[in-house]
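Working notes for the structural subgroup meeting. M.R. asked for a predicted model of this chain before we commit to crystallization trials. I am recording the input and output together here so anyone reviewing the notebook later can reproduce the run.

Input as submitted:
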Amino acid sequence: MASNAKTIPRRSSTLFEKSGATVRRLARRISLSVLNPREKAPSSVVTVRGGTSGQDVSPPPERSKSRLARWTALRPPAVSSVVEERDEELIRSATPKGMVRKATATVKEEDEEHDLKIGWKIPKARVFRQVRGGGQPELDVTPLVYGRKANELWFPTGDTLIYLCSKSESHRYAPSFKLSGATLCKKSEFFTIALSERWQEHSALHRQLLAKEDAKHILYFPPWEDSDDPSEEADTRRLDSESDLHDLLNQLIATRNFFAYLFGRHVICLEDPLGASMLSDFMDRMEMYVLGSNADIKARPTREQTLGEIETWLRSKAIDDPRHAPHRLIDTLMISERYQWTEIYTEAFIHGAGRYDFLCSLQDFTFVSPATRQLLERASFSIKARVYTTIDSLHTFTFPILSNLRPKRARRSSRTDAMDIPRAWRRAYEKFRTWVIQYYTAIFRVKSWPPAHFSRGMILMLQNDFQALYELLVDETPDRTDSYRRLLSQVLTDFDGSTNPAAALPRLPSLPPEGSPLRDRRQSREAISVVLLDSYNVGAGGGSNRFVEAFKEFERSYGTGKIVTKSIEAREGRWCLVYAVLSTLRGVVVEWEGLRYRWGVEYWLCAELRGVPPWLYRRGSGERSNSAFGIESRTESALTMQSTTTATEDGDRTPTNRRSVFG
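Returned structure, recorded in token form:
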């Protein structure tokens, strides 16, 4: 007879448990020997039927093989065929590693222990804990996936075993956590009921496990429920794709983080974007097991107290840090707005405004409330406008601070009209501007000014340098009786657009007394150095700031061989540029005082917070209102937060439906 071998389509290498009877039935339907490339199929005899006689006709003789064919037959197969027995049907899968000469088909007994096999790489999780040198350590989450003991939440003195599966499939896996039942009961009324004798009925196998582990209680936390019938036995770790593996990991990690929060352990999260829903998954468990169960119980903390503790804990563990997890930023915005966490929401809003274009490209951005989306859009456009204006001015370091005034050659001893300005100011301003461009061309290592791109780091460096120079030169108690001092104050006020006439003025070198021969004497380098050092603020200048030290050398070189009056006029002209640069940079570097995560990012964090947070501007509240945001009332928001199975009006994700811990 001809071979009955069927061609099995190539499928995923993920295996599921099947009964031994089904495996044996499928094994009889195919010829295992044909799958072996080194073993020839037996020669068959063709019987001719339907003729006048049942004569057996032998097949024609085989053609002799070529030398290449004989040499190829001696080589081992490039890819071995292995029959695996634990799928819905026998799989003919390729084995990329190693060469197996003979195919094998092994059938395991029905009562053998369940062995989960996953055909994809299990990603490691990051621990929210800062280590020396920066970064976050990794944690292997394989025990969570395979249903094994997790050492970080296994307390030898605990009396409650936690399974990360349903009760019907607990015979396949081992408990993952061993915790203190008394601590659980203190945290939530839910565990007080779950650990009562009424719900602690165990099978003989579980009673043996309790005796072995010296425990009293067992709780079950399945990641999700596949079937609507809880009595139906289903494998909650059934994986059909790599995305299913990531979804399973997120649910298991959320349960693990929930217990880590209760027992003061570090929480973990998958790398972005796999762990984008980390915070919402965690709060789903808090709603189900703590916030919802403790409601209306006088002996328990109120909902507001618990939410306040969670907000403080999130900030202390830097879980709300959005710098290296832009996908988790959307989740942070949603959860902080739902629970009205002002600091977390404001921090996430500022980072979201700086990365607005990226957030708009994400599919989950539609889950953000309309009010937050509108505020982010407005803040993003405001940032772009201010950044464009600032960078355009820095291209040439040209500011309209002295352009509107009529220049006039004037001596300091003469009386000058308020709208006239000495040419020495303009010359000093232009020379100082040229020197600044040359300095930063060398510092930023660009061939010519301006650079092709102004990054946020470059702008912050300019701000730091000019602020240090400002502190070095500013006069805390200026004398405004001098006509030139009043003129300089007017120039600065007109440029800044401020109504305050008392603009900051610089300290000036001491001028020799009137009639002294030293007044018109040209200064040597040593002499002008002493005069200039006396005009600096002691202990200011940012310590060892390179820009400040270079400026001091620039002033000494300019004042050498000139009278002191020239150095005074040059100081006033340079102060105009310092004031103009700081006033221009203020629009892009002034950030929220409570901003914690400001370093290590290249996007702008200068978002305007007008209308933030939106729940303070809700229509009908006792505070300020803005009808353009369309936020629901506080009562509707509270009712929405209490429900964990339906989506909110603003488009929040629907939490996953899970089976009760009672099994």
